[in-house]
## 1
Amino acid sequence: MPNPIPSDYPRVNIALAVDGAAEAIDFYKEVFQATERMHIDAPGGKVAHSELQIGDSLIMVADEYPEMGFRGPKAVGGSPVTITVYMEDADAAYQVALGRGAKSLMPMADQFYGDRSGQFEDPWGHRWGVSSHIEDISPEELARRSSEMMAKGSPAES
């Protein structure tokens, strides 16, 4: 009997519906240094299924299929989800994304919790965070910084 959890897949995977999957795949390859490990074309030049490897994670990307309820964020009024990717150089990834048409949601900044992070919305409406861990913080120091930040009323900056 095969393993119910395939050995070459992470336990949790996400699937993105994109109106223009081929262009989005190129965007994700450039911004996140993703490698495409599977690609299945559909009639009419659409992408039926693709799998992008980003480090030890996997993102599945396909064109929208409204008839199957598979619609992208722009078709449903935006995304309530932000996907965060840890990067060796989050600043560079953020700049590449903006250069490829992403909209800045939160500029890159050092955060109170020890990461340097920023957020953007890609041209297809998916929200992304990019982070690089820059400082190990003890639980006590994290609690102190969190309280200080909450007193200021700004969760984005330390």
Note: The first strand starts at residue 14 and ends at 18.
## 2
Amino acid sequence: MQEQPDDHRLTQARITPRLIESLYTEAMVLADEARTYFDEAGREERGTLDPFVRVGFACESLKVTTRIMHIVAWLLTQRAVETGEIQPGSIRRPERRLGHAADSDPEVVSQLPPSAQRLVNASTDLYARVKRLDEDGFEEAAVPSPARALMGRLERDLLWPKGE
């Protein structure tokens, strides 16, 4: 009978430089979309909303921005660990963990224009994915594979060459 892999190893997310870069790119694109929408295109839509919904629109725009900034800060911390600027053990400190972001009220979000709803939902989804990585990254690690360690070092050197 073949030995089954430890369930923990299957669920544990592998935080690699490539994953960090991919999430960072996604967060920055989302940040740019949110800024453009809430500062420009959303102003016109906001003006057509009822006063109560307008307040919800403003609150949700702040929540979107807060989520994205927490995500970017966390990803930059992960990048600093990968480049050796921060000791890996120090990422357990509370200030290096993903910051708390308030949940959106589905009832409020449902009253927003479709573009605002998309941004709220995209930021919520990205925050949830990064939160899982943050939480899983501090669980008891599985026995490291020498092959994975070598692949991680090669990937780090390709993405972040020394001297850049």
Note: The domain at 16-88+95-159 is CATH 1.10.8.930 (Helicase, Ruva Protein; domain 3).
## 3
Amino acid sequence: MRKTLFTASVLAVALTSPFAQAFQAGDVIVRAGAITVDPHEDSGNVKLGGTPVTPTGATLDSDTQLGLNFAYMVTDNLGVELLAATPFTHNVGTKGLGGLKLGELKHLPPTLSVIYYPLEKNYAFQPYVGAGINYTWFFDDKLTSEAENSALQLRGLDMKDSWGLAAQVGMDYMLTDNVMLNAQVRYIDIETTGTTYSEAAGQKIEVDVDVDPFVYMVGLGYKF
């Protein structure tokens, strides 16, 4: 019985701390840490002059960068958050074209979300959920020399920007009244179209890709 009471007391101290109060209306929260974009792409077939070539498609690898969050608490439990990061770089591969390494792209995925904390502010552990909208800006798209010198003689690469919905779950653990540990997982709806041109075929080449990444971030935060 005493052991049970002791365990309950330790748990209560871990979750509720008098010096580690969580959020209230008007607080500004800044978080920074490592963020990984892990695409779960679903690619359509490559289209040559509008005609699908089967079975073909595009692939994307993962990348980790510096992630930044800026949040403003509208109430003690409800806030508005902006996700930012340094540019992500992804290698673009192909399926069904001899494993041709097509190119490289960079993107920025700013995401604006509404976040909700269900627990009272006297709890040091603060889980939350959020939903919002994402804009993904693709830039600095370029082909590999392998693609340019291939039988297709590809020239130029352009990726279409994307608007989509985003959802997240996360948690903050207040180390002090201002400093916190943070971990979060997001799902972002990103759809794009890659376009290049084949000099050998004299036709445009396109491929539609649902990138749909899971985005993972861990880091530290500070409450102002």
Note: The chain has two helices and 17 strands.
## 4
Amino acid sequence: MRPRLLALTVAALTLFVASNVAVAQERSNECGERAESILRALYPQAEKVSDTDFSIEGATARLSTDSYLGMSPYAMVCRQWPAQPEHLLVALPLLTDEGDHYATGDLVVAVLRHDTLSPVAQYRIDGLIDDDAISLSMLDIDTAPYRLVEGRLAFGVRMLHRGASRVNPFYQTGFVLFNLKDTTLRPLLLNLEVERHTGEWDGICNGTFSSLTRTLAVGKPNQHRGADILITTKRNSSEAKADENGDCNEEEVENTTSRSKLQYDGQRYSVPAGMRMWE
């Protein structure tokens, strides 16, 4: 294999970038033409300051001008809940500060009636956005069937981050699970890292690369507590070196799979330190 820029993409990095571009293109933001109405249903006092930005209690809320996810990473995201189509799920960053290479703020997650936009419940995670060299690149709502507590379906929010360095590529995804009970919304799972891809290379060939992915499954229901969350963790690392002929060769260093579970403590699922995205 002759050295070229794409030597960077040995192991999982190419697949990760390509798959996330595909996700951004295939998954549309369902706020659509109702975006401003959705925002005002949650915050009637919102003051419009530009075509996309609104001021809310000293913070900035943003609407997307593109239907694809990831085109405007700090914009509000909406998705109709397939299992409960009468509900609309919303993830809304509220930026308290923003510059050319940084952003700070909170994340509001809300449930509204899909047809009338009447608010049902919402929850605000303070300080969740704290971006500089590593920043939010895409926000998404996960509606996989997580039936965890008292037979109710939970839904998730995924936050994809990426680093700015070309020679030290970094991609990471954090995951939060929410439980809706009547008009109360609360997090069941916070701070779980479900994906990380890193590398360090010379920009031509020589370097090391590693990836971690976690997939979640729901265990058997338990009458005394919520179902366990079963986690499969896959780790892969590789090393690329140029030989005397100028060929770039890659060697796998690690390829392991491990399994673990998270248990419900009556309030939420506690995430071990080694699985957390944010400390």
Note: Residues 1-25 have pLDDT under 50 and may be disordered.
